[in-house]
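Q: Structure for this?
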Amino acid sequence: MAKESFDKEIQFLRMLVLTSGAFSRQQFADRLGISIHTFDKTTRRLKEIVGSMYQHLPEEQSKEFAETFRFSYYDSTDPVLLFLFRAKSVKGSESQRISLLLGAMNEQALTAMELLDICCSGMSSDLPLPDEKTIRSDLKYLEEVGVIKKEQGPRPYRYRIQNDLVSALSDDELIDLYDFVDVMANTQVPSVQGYLLRDGLKKNLLRNHTDKHAIEPFLYRYQYYSRILDEAHLFTLLSAIRHHCRVRFLYFSPKSEKSYASKNTNPLFERESNGKVVKTLPLKVVYDHQYGRWYLLSYGREGILKFRMEGITQIEEDMPVDESLFETKTNELEEKIRYSWLIDTGRPVTVRARFYNPGPTESNFVKERVLLQGQWGEIVSEDDVSFTYEITVNGTTEIKPWLRSFGSSCEVLEPIQLRREMIAEWKEIQSYYEFV
Amino acid sequence: MNLFEKIFNYQIISRLEDSGTFMVSSQERAWLKTMLEHPAAAQAFTSETLDKLQSILKTDQVMDTSHFLIEKARSIEKQVYHPLLRIFRRHIMNKCGVHLSYEIKGGRTINDQLALPYKLEYSIVKREWYLLWYHLKRKAFMSTRLKNIVSISPETIQLSDVDRIFNRISQILDSRKNNVILEVVPEYNRELSRILYALSSFEKEVEYDEENDIYRVKICLLGGESEYLLSKLRFLGKRVRVIEGKYLKRRLLEASMKALERYGVNPSKEELSHK
């Protein structure tokens, strides 16, 4: 069987979240380059998962599929897109068998034969009964993913669920653990495993406290919700980097958006021929906090290459390369991105900007923000009304939006070209509102 | 490590939920073990709990993402945990009131106000925690940085009508909502994905006008979000235009005029000379 790919679901969800409500069924399907039939099928499948994930939370029960994605800040802090990672297909009989096995091992350590008996008596009558070989292969799988543990002792081996994480902690400690996992999953990357763990701990807490208010004390403002979709490829890439392996994938460059300006949202689902087959040596993965997006930086025949994670589909690991080549290229890359605001590997330039302090009665939020977000730049001089910030960056394209976000509190001094661009942009912005 | 593991399948998870079984995979434990190395862990747990966790996870692997994963344009992480989180989260859970003393702008301290803690809010942008609470005497919804809280009374106060107050808070929050509409300047439609990414942290709806090929984004602003949206709009520059939202329009006009003044460009004079 071909490896199950979730590319379609990922693209589908990304588009649904980013363009919530914009398109009709037909438009949506067109933009993804799929038939309306496939669109409906994908929706049905995702709906089923969402429905099943939220069935035990009464408040969320009646939520409609599309509404699930129109997130409402104060309602719930469950990451709405997490269910993507619940989408791996499993046969009905297998899901029933595995949950029976885990349920049984939750209470006591059992042997394979004992588990076989439990399974045979517990399975629905319309499903085929498992044999010993199946149970042994289930146990092997569960041990591999770290869900169960083989107990020490003579044969026949006994297995038990590996849940010390909750069984060894008191109720009060479990609250601390849940909070820590919640905070870290929401503030650090990678986060998907954290969200999965949070989900398990939350359900465990809900069994004791029925009050949702008690379970969700934290809110996270200005979170990039769609960032977790791109973590889908992250571990494949990290593993390839670790093993110095090339990867192969079909890439839909955002640049091609320009050549398909009429279908400008997302060419990722166009016919395959629109994508480009890429074989490249991955070196680093970059998470950009400015947009909540992920990049792959790699080495290919053309030199250093950059890919947006959202354009990568059908990724597979390829052959390894010499360690020395990997090391050399990694060092080269590290040198090149040392001054990248994000990932620009262009020529380094020194940018100097004067920032104006707010009035004397207000706290200096301008300086606070420059110190917080200004990366490796430095404040080189200061007087009563302003301060000068200086930074060496590769090109000015990536830092420009940040400087502009300060509005009239920031005046670019150097380079002169950037200063001119800023003036031109402010003139244009002014023209938008002048006569309104 | 594969995030699409069979064991994470939704049918398995919901069956386990029915039987009350807690399951955790080695991936999740590896993530947790890695996070426990973060300095925040020391503030999140008592030292006994932290020891216990570390011993439970002793045989687990750590995720070695740090060598290959680079974070860019990240704010300095000045605060991930705050010592008061553990205290307030329990007050929130128990729905009880406390007396708060806190510092306000200008450095003055307000003493012993009867407060009902509602939620703890982290700003991803400012990297700081806030307490959202209800001021019982003034009947007002408040937001205070945890770092500005000077003291909390040790004793808690049982309040009789907590649920009514929570309803009141929801009403206040709803009444502070405010809709604005932005339009992607069609010339920049090809940058739509980037623009929508930048706006993805707001409650929003996108509308597509097929005939004119125009995208409009309706943003539902919660109280106090205008400033952040303004900084995002300046960040995006000429790519988006505010269509509805008097306050935002006025502020953007002001920003552009003042900025041009800083650069020594006097637009009104130029305008006159053209005419």
